[in-house]
Design goal:
Elements lengths: L9 H12 L1 H7 L1 H8 L3 H25 L6 H9 L1 H36 L10 H17 L3 H32 L23 H12 L16 H31 L3 H9 L3 H9 L2 H35 L18 H21 L4 H32 L12 H18 L10 H18 L1 H23 L1
Helix pairs in contact: 1-8, 1-10, 1-13, 2-13, 3-9, 3-11, 4-9, 4-10, 4-15, 4-16, 5-6, 5-15, 6-7, 6-13, 6-14, 6-15, 6-17, 7-13, 7-14, 8-10, 8-12, 8-13, 10-11, 12-13, 13-14, 15-16, 15-17
């Protein structure tokens, strides 16, 4: 059996994208990097990032209106730029999902261990405590990934929704205290967070927007569920666009409250930048220690939900490779009882665990270093997949010989290429030092494996091309109806 079971609705597809984007984690960590560049103007930088993400989302929305494929960019790029480019794009996205699975399962371990320490359940923890909890998170990912995907997406929506709700409640309390003058240290509501401080170059907003852009990574994850959605050409584009819009509003509002909560003066910005958990510290300072503990627990749950989304997405990509003869055929097997790609799910979770073991045992990495290394490399690889997907959308929409959209809309994907290209540039230039100098190297090695493979195995590329033609042609024909 090699056919996935349909049945998902638009909300369950949204669950995958939101969980992989992990807005709860992102709001607690990523704004600090932006503050280092733009100071108090963090929400303004996130506003610019939102514009960039919506530009990239245009390409995915248009592609999903014509194709639905479990391989996401593998199918999209393969159908528009050719099988070889599709294989490279799919391999890139698979690497991202596996590495993000490492990032988020490790984060679940870090936040989980921190919560147990804060409530006194496990004091004086050994250094391997986060790894133990992270391993339990990976086992949970495996169990839910091999289950019917509807169950998994419901868990994702519930987990992330509860955490986002907690964050919004704390943000509302902070906002009310800022407005009524009862905030600590005399802090008050101010619109200055939407302007750069005197002496700050306005151009730094674009550097700060880079970190905001990275907070949205994974918004397109619903594309991997096209073959399991009841109405893929309608629901998947809505899920992707809806996630991008939600993320933009959420990040702008929450970061504005965060900056005001810490204070917009130099001391406040410094405390903001050095915070280990932005909303955890705000919860403790504005509500009580119990609120900070709940945020830490919520971050752990959010991290697990994101790890589960990574497992679901990676399993669908590996399944598509196996089904199309690119990888061992066993990966393309579907459980007759569950209707899920159980072999592919086991494979990708084992890959995640192997990365953690390699970092921890071979390189002596701490849990936070595993988080940092995998996140940086995974993001660089993801941006390459975004570039290929955007190029594929340009070719389909404007150079396929058919008039699919107004010609002026080519400006949108071209601007998306500028945004993604600049993001890649700022992650590599100036070239990082220390352990970070290996991040671009690992990224290039991962991509080079796919490039060498498709060159050395032309028969595999031709076979994948034939399979892609079969799996995507019906959608093109339907578009003419």
């Amino acid at each position: 059996m090699s056919e996935l079971r349909r049945g998902l609705n638009v909300w369950e597809a949204i669950g995958i994208s939101i969980a992989l984007m992990a807005p709860s984690m992102a709001a607690n960590i990523n704004p600090q990097a932006t503050a280092g560049s733009v100071g108090r103007a963090v929400p303004l930088a996130f506003g610019l990032a939102t514009v960039g993400v919506l530009l990239v989302a245009y390409a995915f929305v248009r592609l999903c209106q014509h194709f639905h494929h479990a391989g996401s960019v593998y199918g999209f790029v393969g159908a528009t730029l050719g099988a070889r480019a599709g294989l490279v794009a799919g391999w890139a996205l698979l690497g991202t999902y596996v590495l993000y699975g490492v990032v988020t399962s490790t984060a679940a371990g870090i936040f989980g261990a921190s919560f147990l320490d804060e409530v006194g359940a496990w004091k004086h923890q050994p250094s391997w405590a986060p790894f133990l909890i992270g391993t339990l998170a990976l086992l949970g990912v495996l169990a839910l990934t091999v289950s019917p995907v509807r169950s998994a997406t419901r868990v994702l929506l519930t987990a992330e929704g509860a955490t986002v709700l907690l964050i919004l409640v704390i943000s509302l309390v902070v906002l009310i205290r800022l407005l009524n003058g009862s905030a600590p240290h005399g802090r008050t509501f101010t619109w200055s967070v939407f302007s750069v401080a005197p002496g700050t170059d306005v151009s730094t907003l674009f550097l700060g927007a880079v970190f905001g852009f990275l907070s949205f990574a994974g918004f397109e994850a619903a594309a991997t569920l096209g073959e399991e959605s009841r109405r893929p050409r309608r629901d998947i584009p809505r899920a992707i666009l809806g996630t991008a819009i939600f993320g933009g509003v959420y990040f702008i509002v929450v970061t504005a409250i965060e900056v005001m909560g810490f204070g917009t003066d130099d001391a406040g910005v410094k405390a903001f930048t050095n915070s280990g958990s932005l909303l955890g510290d705000l919860g403790t300072g504005y509500v009580g220690a119990w609120a900070g503990n709940l945020v830490t627990l919520g971050a752990a749950v959010s991290a697990f939900g994101c790890a589960l989304a990574c497992g679901v997405g990676a399993a669908r990509l590996a399944f598509a490779f196996g089904r199309d003869g690119v990888a061992p055929a066993r990966l393309g097997a579907v459980s007759p009882r569950l209707g899920t790609p159980h072999v592919a799910a086991l494979t990708v979770v084992v890959m995640m665990g192997a990365v953690v073991l390699l970092d921890a045992l071979a390189f002596g990495a701490s849990a936070f270093e595993v988080f940092l290394w995998s996140g940086t490399i995974g993001t660089l690889i993801l941006l390459v997949a975004y570039v290929l997907a955007t190029l594929g959308a340009i070719r389909l929409l404007f150079f396929s010989g058919r008039r699919l959209v107004p010609a002026w809309q080519i400006v949108i994907p071209l601007l998306a290429l500028v945004v993604v290209g600049y993001t890649l540039y700022r992650n590599v230039i100036p070239y990082p030092t220390g352990a970070a100098r290996w991040f671009p190297v690992v990224c290039l090695i991962w991509l080079a494996i796919a490039v060498v493979y498709v060159i050395a195995r032309p028969g595999v590329a031709r076979r994948a091309g034939r399979q892609l033609a079969v799996s995507t042609a019906p959608e093109l024909e339907e578009d003419h109806v």
